[in-house]
Amino acid sequence: MKIRLVFAILIAAVTLLTVKLITAESEKTMNEQTMKNLSTAMHGEAFAYAKYSLFAEHARQNGNTKLADLFESTAKTERFEHFSEEEKLAGLVGTDSDNLKDAIMGESYETETMYREFAQQAKQAGDLEVAKRFEEIRLEEAKHRDAFNAALSDLKK
Ligand SMILES: [Fe+2]
Ligand SMILES: [Fe+2]
User: Which residues sit with Cβ closer than 5 angstroms to ligand 2, an ion?
Assistant: First the structure.
């Protein structure tokens, strides 16, 4: 009986220690440069996915089926393996509320800063078609921001 009790206590202690170690590991803040590199890598993987998907579409239209398949399968690896693994490490996805706040920040930056400056710079450089499209996209980003803001308000109700 006594041995059983000691054994039970021992198991409980080991379990507690394991939980504590796992918690400590997951709460450990990541090195700033590592986090930056994860973000850069994810942007690259997402862009490669979009680009290779377009390349695949183009090759398929030209009848180069084998090349289209190669671009398509590589695109899938970039998105569903490399990007997916990196986003988990980076903790990209949070609660719905966190995700909305993140999205609002991004769309606000695009609306108020990025596309505004890009449109101005393109206009000054004489790239009028690009300037016009940047400005149109900027207004669409503002709509995205507003829709996300409304969704966040609904979530709080
Ligand atoms: Fe990759
Ligand atoms: Fe957007």
Answer: 141, 144
